[in-house]
Amino acid sequence: MTAETRQPGPSTPEALDAFARELDAIRDQAMAQRGAEDARYIVRLLWVIRGLEATGRLGLLVAAIFWAAGWAAGWPMAWAAGATVPWLAATVGTVLLGLSKCLQNMEFGHNVMHGQYEWMNDPRFEGKSHEWDSACAKEDWRDFHNHMHHHYTNVAGVDRDFGYGMLRLSADTPWEPRHLIQAPYAALVALLFEWAIAIHNLEFERLRTDRDATQARMQALWPRARAKMAMQLRRDFLAWPILAGTLGALAFVLRSGMGDMAVSSSDWGTAALAFGAPALVMLAGNALAGVIRNLWTFVVIFCGHFTDGVHLFPADAVATEHRGHWYLRQILGSSNLRGGWLFHVMTGNLSHQIEHHLFPDLPARRYAEVAPAVRAVCLRHGVPYNTGSLTWQFFTVVRRIVRHSLPGGEHLLTPLPRAG
User: Fold this and answer.
1) Burial letters for 380-390: b for 16+ Cβ neighbours within 10 Å, e otherwise?
2) SS3 state at 388
3) What confidence tens digit (pLDDT) does each residue in 136-149 have?
């Protein structure tokens, strides 16, 4: 059966209203339960993130300084390079820093910027002012994600988050020869996801169809996007590497006693290496931590939006939609992931993508609580509730990307039931 003939869920105005009332009741009850427990959770999470980041960066500094001091002491280069302590410190530091970035972006930054904790009246959790650890400017994020994506979820031609303007994911998008390389292109985007999202709001892909308007938009938005990307580059790829290099060079000088003797040109060359090598260690650790974050966020986000069973909706149906239609779009355009408590935390609770799209301003830690009630409402009203394991859902995402790199594919456009 094609998507054009499927109309899952309530199909009459009365049924849609009943559907909306039940979901409204779930939201109202959950929002009324917000309180001290949620506040303690988000404060503790903030300190966990800061602790992981500090420990991770410290591990990278320890590795860098150890190698510099070893060269200063005259250790054989092969032994110093293969020493267990600095490699272990660098590996652990990189992993912990990557974990902190995952948590900061997803369970903290993303959710805070949705306004989930503004009721606390604490500037640390103010959605509009929060400066997250990402190359994407917060203003751009609120525009294309909080507003366009969440309000116009999977509306064809409006919600640019469906495929991010770069991927053909259904037969409803005309095929072009450039789509042949979208699978390796998607893999590259996964590695650099933070930077792809940073320029998403510039709408580069529309240069082909509306060049003048797109250039004007890019000129207006680029200064803000450039400033945020530069901030991210300065911190992870300049400030921290310089600090590591400086400490490494200092450790070399102190260990070798260069200040107490005549310094030869070879000594200065080794000292320069003692600066450069630690700086590179820190730079590489920061880059790999970013890759960890990018790959994880790519997988989670794509598994929440582009699996089997998702639907697209025609733009003309949205203008007259009721509350029930909006709820229906959120469910049919989202997918969940099964997992345990830690898994849900690491995904920012976007493993409950359906509940997030229904209630984006509800503290995400409560999605697991409301999920059974949401699923029961879907069952009563005949609305598919798309959930599965991470492995299976990601397999269907990859299959969709590869299949639609070729002509043809699956039509996803689904007409909404009439409003009456």
Assistant:
1) ebebebbbbeb
2) strand
3) 999 999 999 999 99
3-state helix, strand, coil in the chain (%, to 5): 70, 0, 30
Alpha helices per DSSP H over 240-335? 240-256, 265-303, 323-332
pLDDT grade for 420, boundaries at 50, 70 and 90: low
* Residues 181/192, Cβ–Cβ less than 8 Å: no
Q: Give CA–CA dist 131/109, Å, rounded.
A: 8
Which residues, other chains included, contact 295 with Cβ-Cβ below 8 Å and sequence gap of 6+? 190, 191, 193
415 vs 97, 191, 294, 341, CA distance in Å? 45, 36, 34, 36
DSSP code, position 145? I
Could you tell me where the beta strands, DSSP code E, fall in 82-174?
none
pLDDT confidence tier of residue 300, bands split at 50, 70 and 90: very high
Q: Tell me, what's the pLDDT at 333?
A: 95
Amino acid at residue number 47: W
Question: pTM of the full predicted structure?
Answer: 0.92
State residue 187 phi and psi, 5-degree precision. -65, -40
Token pair 């042949």 in the structure block, residue: 180
Residue type, 151: H
User: How far is residue 195's CA from residue 136's CA, in Å, rounded to a whole number?
Assistant: 7
From residue 387, alpha-carbon distances to 212, 305, 306, 316, 329 in Å are 42, 11, 12, 29, 16
Q: Where are the beta strands (DSSP E) in 271-350?
A: 336-337
> Which run of H or E residues covers position 387?
strand 387-388
Residues 151-180, mean pLDDT to the nearest whole number: 92
Q: Using 50, 70 and 90 to split pLDDT, how confident is the model at 257?
A: low
